[in-house]
């Protein structure tokens, strides 16, 4: 497969989106924005259906969020410590909450996913705080849909405006998204202050 050719991607972009977007719910460094923005760029090039990319990305985002939410709501997170990858994930949750805070409001569930690392932090915090499953599910669905529309839109607009190869449009879209997300993150952090329960002492354990 020639990854630099739009024709080589075809319908495979939809199958890439599902595991990568779900994986991002557990491990934020997974490049979910990249693959969804690429779907938007391919749509601009006539090689994918923008609406289908949005729906697949939103569904995968919701499924990943529900998985993490239930994991922490049912207090099963310590089971992960049996494996090295599980301990890495557990540490990633601590780090994400330390950076993004522990807000469990419905607005945060919808909006903080646009900030790097915010999706994992807010989803885990909502489970820890025993937020209503129905309320979380609805907010996660709405947030996932808005995120998918935003990401696909970035790729589509960039591709249509620049006329560059889809991979170049994807990189530009990702760069724009990261800059905007980082800017919003700085604003949110300053307004909320340091509300994280995460402490610097490695001997102090949190109840999750």
Automatic annotation (TrEMBL):
InterPro entries recorded: DedA_domain, VTT_dom
Protein name as catalogued: Membrane protein DedA with SNARE-associated domain
PANTHER family: ALKALINE PHOSPHATASE LIKE PROTEIN (PTHR42709), UNDECAPRENYL PHOSPHATE TRANSPORTER A (PTHR42709:SF6)
Protein family according to the UniProt entry: Belongs to the DedA family.
Organism, scientific name: Arthrobacter ginsengisoli
Keywords: Cell membrane, Membrane, Transmembrane, Transmembrane helix
TM region positions: 12-30, 50-72, 138-158, 164-188
Top-level taxonomy: Bacteria, Bacillati, Actinomycetota, Actinomycetes, Micrococcales
Residue span(s) of domain VTT: 30-156
